Amino acid sequence: MELCSKKKLHALSLAEKIQVLELLDESKMSQSEVARRFQVSQPQISRICKNKEKLLADWCSGTANRERKRKRESKYSGIDEALLCWYHIAQAKAWDVTGPMLLHKAKELADIMGQDFVPSIGWLVRWKRRNNVGFGARHVVAPPFTPELPPPAPTPQAQLPLSLKDFSPEDIFGCAEVPLLYRAVPGRVGVCDRVQVLLCANSRGTEKRRVLVSGLQAAPRCFFGVSSEALPASYHPDLAIPWSEWLAQFDRDMGRQGRQVALLLAARVVEELAGLPGLGHVKLLPLSAASTTPSLPSSVVQAFKAHYRRRLLGKLAAVQSERAGTSLAEAGAGITVLDALHMAAAAWAKVPLQLIVSSFVQEGLAPGKTALAPHKASEMPPVPGGLSLEEFSRFVDLEGEEPVSGVCKEEVGTEDQVGGREDGLEPLPTKADALRALGTLRRWIECKGTGPELFANFYACEEEVERLCCL
Question: HTH CENPB-type domain: which residues (predicted)?
Fold first, then answer.
């Protein structure tokens, strides 16, 4: 008796999958008929239709290997994307990029992200295959203008006859650098407390880009054991905002969505980006250097800072209630960069949509016949107890105070004074620690006699933690 041979799996390449989608869209063929034409099963065609948006995004990105049949995601996706961003920048500058150079850069990025990762030759080969990267002769970038033409403007985007009316309100984005003293309190403003925060949102408030925080510390201890994917905001180990990398990522994100958007930027920033390769989906609209109009409405920035300061005060008050005799300055010294990332992400999420809409219209940064009158209560969060409105307003604008010089606490490791291991790094929590913490938290809430709303939030958190413990 002849045994039945196992049916051989026929996988389609990305290019073939796009052909499948085009055939289904442009003809009246059924999925079964298309499956027979490509000699695959009908469920495989169904999966292609289900992943239509992702496949089209990969196809439009220009970086995907269109002949590759299967795409296996990297375990270290954050390093993968960061290295690809760096590679595109190096390619635009006509650098000679070699394999050893990429391996060294990947290790450097892993260290910055706090990940225990050692790139190998095999990993590099797979990375190149995933991202359709190939070496070869270096291509010199041709000059964008012929010698007969007049000298070009500072940036390609500045030459285009663009205006706000060329874009829908949903596709007009504003962004701003916000200096922030992340743990400073009145009377204690240290030079090491300063970080730069990059905020970006569209004029309808429906899209807020992920917060980016740039700080002095290359690898804060508080990041030990924390997955870069779990960080609530992006962190860059330098006070200068990494505009090239940030814009490249923004451009890729818009490309995946098939959108053309405008980004309002200060003229100074646009001048610094003169060497930036052309962006395919983001058009820069520089504001005049003489203009007083901000690239992100000042009321939006002020609301973000107010929510951040209120959250900081709440955290400091909790520390003081736990440790009797602790001053506000001492409590503030215990705030870490990781705490700041969480508070910045929470503060940005709390800036109301209505405020963003009305602020863009009032500043003339978005089309609108009349500005919507924002409620003053929505611009600023409730004033914390024990402070007057004037005192809280001064606290919100604490960046205006003169900082004092000193050594950063996290850099010298004064955390060792509060106990823990000799290297100042606390051991990572176990599953048992997490479950015990849930029990302690629930018991504490029960003893406080709070309402059902808090328990509803706790149940959601408890369920998610228990799910993670089972992985």
Answer: 67-137
Side-chain-facing half-sphere of 420: CA atoms under 13 Å: 12
What whole-number distance in Å separates Cα of residue 10 and Cα of residue 16? 12
What is each CA distance from 116 to 126, 211, 324, 421, 428, in whole angstroms?
19, 25, 39, 20, 14
Evaluate whether 151 touches 298 at the Cβ level (below 8 Å): no
For the ranges 278-287, 381-390, 437-446, which has the lowest average pLDDT? Answer: 381-390
Residue 448 to residues 391, 443, 444: CA-CA distances in angstroms? 31, 9, 6
Does residue 141 form part of some domain?
no
Q: How many structural domains is the chain composed of?
A: 4
Judge whether 2 lies within some domain. no
Say if CB 346 and CB 314 are below 8 A apart.
no
Return the minimum-mean-pLDDT range out of 15-24, 55-64, 384-393, 444-453.
Answer: 55-64
Q: Is 140 inside any structural domain? A: no
**And the tokens for 387?**
């402070």
The residue segments making up the domain with residue 102 are 77-130
CB environment 270-290: b (16+ within 10 A), e (fewer): bebbeebbebebbbbbbbeee
Q: Which helix (H) or strand (E) holds 194?
A: strand 194-202
Domain membership flag for residue 156: no
Are 96 and 219 within one domain? no
Q: What is the pLDDT, as a whole number, of residue 171?
A: 93
Distance of alpha carbon 246 from alpha carbon 82, whole angstroms = 10
- Cα–Cα distance measured from residue 379 to residue 356, given in angstroms and rounded to the nearest whole number: 9
What CATH number should be reported for the domain holding residue 29? Answer: 1.10.10
pTM score of the predicted model: 0.58
Within this chain, do residues 86 and 57 fall inside the same structural domain, yes or no?
Answer: no
